[in-house]
Amino acid sequence: MIKNLVFLSFFCFLFSCTTEAPKVRPVNKKEIIDSTITAFQKTLLEQQIDSTLKKYHFNGSIAVFKDSLPLYRRENGYSDFKRKTKIDSNTIFAIGSVSKQFTAVMILLQMELGKLNVTDKASKYLKEFQIKEYENITIHQLLNHTSGLNMLGGKLMFKSGSDFFYSNDGFNTLGKIVEKVSGKSYDDNVMELFKKAGMIHSSTGDIFKGTNFASAYLGNENEVHEVPDMPKRLGSKDIGIPAGGILSTIEDLHHWNNALYGGKILKPETLKLFMAQSAERHHAIFGKMGYAYGIMLNIGKPNAYFHSGYVKGSPSLNIYYPETRTSVIILSNIADEEKGKSATFKTHKEVKKITDNLENTLIRLMKKN
Q1: What does the alpha-carbon distance between residue 277 and residue 271 come to, in Å, rounded to a whole number?
Q2: Angle, alpha carbons 349-330-224 (nearest 5°)
Q3: For residues 111 and 125, what is the distance between their CA atoms, to the nearest angstrom?
Q4: Coil, helix or strand for 52?
Q5: DSSP single-letter state for residue 58
Q6: Mean pLDDT computed over 242-262
Q7: pLDDT score of 21 more than 60
Q8: Quick one: pLDDT band at residue 260, thresholds 50, 70, 90?
Q9: Confidence band (pLDDT; 50, 70, 90) for 367?
Q10: What is the DSSP letter of 234?
Q11: Residues 325-337, buried b or exposed e (16+ Cβ, 10 A)?
């Protein structure tokens, strides 16, 4: 790592000096520095991520993109262990709670149409919230998990707006609100959103009819047990499509990141609201972080918008670094639950650490040159 940084800094220094060369086409220093930095990124990612994947016997798909440029990509293992079907670039995975950002964006799109406001109370739209316990819960509080809601029908964990408690039922409630104000099903709404973002291989567990789905497994490379009734079980009461039931691919999530953070989905002021930290979360795997609307944020450097996802056998992570417009996406279809979630997300956590460090390095170099 240090050798690579020294080489890159020296290379950039050489081109920070100006020289005159008559009758010779001027050297485009920016292009050369950019290409050198890109080569440095690719080399470092290959060295460090390959080592991580090997160490943890990663079974899944992982990629790093800068805008449309692929910097790193690997497909390892099987989408179907019984038939020994290998994972490829078209493999579709359950993405768990990465789904929540799609639900949040659909709420904000309805706000742009004038059909709701995030300051509205959920009781304005849903009869089940018209009880004393829930009557003051706002859409904003459902979006950033500060409503106090755990399971729908149960007592609140705390006074709404006073703390943070992660609630799948809160996001499933948001899905119902989208349906209520739009007059269309959640599936219809999200498929329209996928089309807008150029996500041609994505759908939900309720309507999926394709053939490239990565079956989910519990266990390890030596002994696996298939999770039954996937992906239909994602629509069950225990999970819920708006909270964790979307299916997608590496390529589609890359398109999503570029479209969303590139301003092609939401208006600028709405996107700013979507990304603004309005709560704080202590994540069991990734530690202390900020929370916005269905996305998490690094506290400190580098700036990053991300979310992990987990439904049985399917750990996932989607990261976007706005300063370099870089996406890091990790999708997998096996988890050794006996070792706990910390073990399940070892690859994801380590890759995030690698890309966080690389992002900080790149930003320093960009400012220097």
Answers
A1: 12
A2: 90
A3: 14
A4: helix
A5: -
A6: 98
A7: no
A8: very high
A9: confident
A10: G
A11: bbbbbbbbbbbbe
- d(CA 148, CA 170) in angstroms, rounded, equals 9
* pLDDT at residue number 7: 44
Judge contact between 201 and 297, C-beta under 8 A: no
Q: What is the pLDDT of residues 192-243, one digit of tens each?
A: 999 999 999 999 999 999 889 999 999 988 899 999 999 999 999 999 999 9
Please state, in angstroms and rounded to a whole number, the distance separating the CA atoms of residues 310 and 335: 9
In a 3-state reduction of DSSP, which class is residue 78?
A: strand
Look at the block and give the residue holding tokens 């996937």: 230
Mean pLDDT over all residues of the chain? Answer: 92
Q: Are 255 and 199 in contact (CB under 8 A)?
A: yes
Q: Is 349 exposed, middle or buried (0-12, 13-18, 19+ CB in 10 A)?
A: middle
Residues 137, 149: Cα–Cα separation, whole Å:
9
Roughly what angle, to the nearest 10 degrees, separates helices 100-112 and 268-275? Answer: 140
Look up residue 25 and give its DSSP letter: P
Residue 237 to residue 240: CA distance in whole angstroms: 6
Helix axes 186-197, 168-182, angle to 10 degrees: 90
DSSP three-state, residue 72? strand
Residue 30's pLDDT band, with cuts at 50, 70 and 90, is low
Residue by residue, DSSP assigns 286-348 as TEEEEE-SS-EE-SSSSP-EEEEEEETTEEEEEEEETTTTEEEEEEE-EE-GGG-HHHHTHHH
Q: Which of 73, 106, 58, 52 is nearest to 254 (CA)?
A: 73
pLDDT-derived band of residue 29, with 50, 70 and 90 as boundaries? low
What would the DSSP string read from start to end of 191-229? HHHHHHHT-TT-EETTT---S-B---EEEETTEEEEPTT
Task: Write the pLDDT tens digit of every residue in 301-321.
Answer: 999 999 999 999 999 999 999
Q: What is the pLDDT of residue 25?
A: 65
In degrees and rounded to multiples of 5, residue 58 shows phi and psi of: -60, 130
